[in-house]
Amino acid sequence: MSTGDTLDKLVVFLAKRDGIDKLVKTFQYVSKLAHWGAESSRPELAKRAKSWETASGLSRKAFRSGRFLTGFNALRRAPGEFGTLAVLANAGEMVYFFFDHFTWLSRVGVLEAWLARPACYVSAFGESVGYLFFIAMDFIMIRRGLRMERKLLREASGGSKDSNAGREKEVRKIRVDRVMRLMATAANVADLVIGIAEVEPNPFCNHAVTLGISGLVSAWAGWYRNWPS
């Protein structure tokens, strides 16, 4: 791939709301790890990294304004084949993004500062619930894809050249879909860890390294999924 092609794809990627979000999320969690690494040996650098982390986190919340409407719109439509799973997943996402507004406004001083903690808790709880059901749906689809792939490969062993070409195309589509769903699952699991750290604080989930790595896994998996093909 040429430098020009890469630059063109980067421009398209950054033109998307999710593209910008993944870039700033990378800044947020790289700075978190930098703060942790420099805290004891280079306090001034750690202070700057912390400021970068805070600024990145608040800017992401501002940029996600109105994002809860995505979940609300999904709830308005028929739940489809997943039924209750889809309803719970999208409801959790809607709660997450809706209460994120109150977290942001309280942290920048528009609302009372004490609102930040309960709003963040409700937001993280909704986020965690939503991710659990999104993960479940992706696993169901991955399992279906594996079954269909095995069926197509069995049929290909005794089929004609023309029919096998069609089956190979279907197998490629199934494999691409599986990779994308695995990336989505990796991002959702990583974000679930971050959500648990807020809902039920514990030494493992709340450690700076755990949060930093989880944030970067989520950001880079999302980067991969949103990168122009």
Question: What can you see in these coordinates?
Answer:
The protein is globular and about 70 Å long. It has 229 residues and is mainly alpha-helical. Helix content is 82%, strand content 0%.
Helix content: over 70%
Strand content: under 5%
Radius of gyration: 21 Å
Instruction: Kindly name the structural category.
Output: mainly alpha
Number-wise, the strands total: 0
- Put simply, the count of helices is 8
Q: Rough shape?
A: globular
Average pLDDT metric: 91
* H/E topology pattern: HHHHHHHH
Low-confidence stretches: none
What is the distance, rounded to the nearest whole angstrom, between the alpha carbons of the first and last residues? Answer: 12 Å
Domain count: the total is 1
- Major β-sheet profile: none
Can I get a quick summary?
This protein is mainly α. It has helices at residues 3-15, 17-38, 43-63, 68-76, 84-107, 116-156, 161-199, 208-226.
Characteristic key phrases:
mainly alpha, PEX11, membrane, peroxisome, transmembrane helix
List the helices and strands and how they pair.
Elements: H1 3-15, H2 17-38, H3 43-63, H4 68-76, H5 84-107, H6 116-156, H7 161-199, H8 208-226
